[in-house]
Amino acid sequence: MGKLSKRVAIVGAGMSQFGQLFPLKRNPDLWVDAWVNAVKSVDNGIAPKDVDACYVGNYSSDLFNHQGHLGPQMANLVGLTPKPASRFEGACASSGIALRQAIIAVASGIHDVIAVAGVECMNQLPTSLVTDALATASDALFEYPAGATFPGLYATVASAHFHKYGTTSEDLMRIGIKNHENGAENPFAQMQRTIKQLMQSKLKKLEEQGKDLPNWNDEFDYLRSSSNPMIAYPLRLFDCSLVTDGAACVFVASEETARNFTDTPIWIAGTGQGSAALSIHDRDDLTGFIATREAARQAYEMSGYGPKDMQIAELHDCFTIAELVALEDLDFYEKGKAAQAIKEGETKRDGVRPINTSGGLKSKGHPVGATGAAQAVEIFKQMRGRAERNRQVKFDVERALTHNLGGSGATCVVTIYEK
Amino acid sequence: MAEEKDFTIQNYLEFIQNKKLMGSKCKDCGKLYAPVRKLCTKCNSLNMEWVELSGKGELAAFTSITVGTPYFIDLGYDRNKPYCFSVIKLEEGPMVSAQLVGVDESKPDLIKIGTPVKVKFLENELKGETNIDLGFEPA
Predict the structure, then answer these.
(1) pLDDT tens-digit profile of A236-267?
(2) Which of A6, A232, A296, A307 supports an S-S bond with A151, CB 3.0-4.6 Å?
(3) A1 — contact with chain B (CB < 8 Å)?
(4) In this predicted complex, what is the ipTM?
(5) pTM given for the model
(6) Coil, helix or strand for A138?
(7) B48: containing domain
């Protein structure tokens, strides 16, 4: 119990462009783009004949695109018919679950190679309906009728964290600023601009319109202004991740086959998954997520590593508060101590443990069902020294972690990678 | 008699429509559930009874929402008139989600976690029908 019966590796990983791409790109287009990029990343090549099954993570094509049953659809598009193809759903952790299930299936010996897909095309709906579709990932019986929106639930968690640990809105702003600085270096990201650049664009626009220029000294002034409207106190627009269309693809291979594809596979050291009550009112601790703590406990135990061994991580920053809370739930920092570490720059790309070098959900984008697989794509690139532009970390990454959170924290998948 | 009703969501919601906040209590281990549960997940018992809750508690967490759900938008809430979603810790122990009223939603900095609250059943009229929603206000 708690161990993989044999080693499992990632031998290739790639993603589509993330962005507001509908109708130019729909689920099939996004997925094929991701597959093609993942195939390119496999050093010795990979073909459909090498792949035994297709595991698709998708949250809600039913609501977003009026399309269910994505497993066989996606498999067919890349030449995998008639192999087994299934869809996995766990809200924003859908493809984290698909990846975990692929790892377990390969470790069991039933398959040698599985293509893990994450795909979501959200912009087919107007924003108000996207928000409402996302709300179905939280409790529809009691929270939703009481007015809970998806940002509202994370805002509620933020209020409890602020109250107990003295966390401030500025602490959250630092997370957004950092993630945009990383996303600006990611050619696949939805918003490849820093918050400073966005502020300067806004000032330029106001100047062109002949309007009075606000007295913004830095990004914090901009983020405190009405240009960054409140969505659900204390969360403002720039505390929220993006509405994104995108896909990612990860090739999971058995110990016996991995070396056929590459001399430098990335090995799975640990995988864990946890759950919590769907309603936050049914949870004992409102300042963190028990599903994360459980998933992390399992993954650390399986890997034999601890939080201090993790050199980089992709954390699920669907809202800025979620990244801060994850830093504590993963035991990277003690409860209430993450904000200070962020302030000291520890989580920046040049910090002691870079977090979300991809830009995170905040800047890279958050096509919800694709996010877990996309996190693995970034780790695969960073660990092999192949992250684009200027975002490759300056040290050799031996061990890394991904944290994929579903809904308002009721599902979490944590994966640990090693060379 | 309340004790005869099955421990279903529908019956819990009907109590609220009748302005009663009810929970289910395990007769074997004493664990109290609100919203209602039929199966005690502490001791696996099905031996439940309905109990009426005092409606007193304190504010455990909250947010003031400017971009609301369709229902709240229909009730007239928007950026200029935000509403407060809250988690209330009842004095009997369980926590519930509810709208918090009687506070200045436009000044959420002034709303304090730990504030004592009491239940207030909200009569919301929509499309000619009155719906009773669970709410709380400062005590």
Answers:
(1) 999 999 999 999 999 999 999 999 999 999 99
(2) A232
(3) no
(4) 0.96
(5) 0.97
(6) coil
(7) 2-52
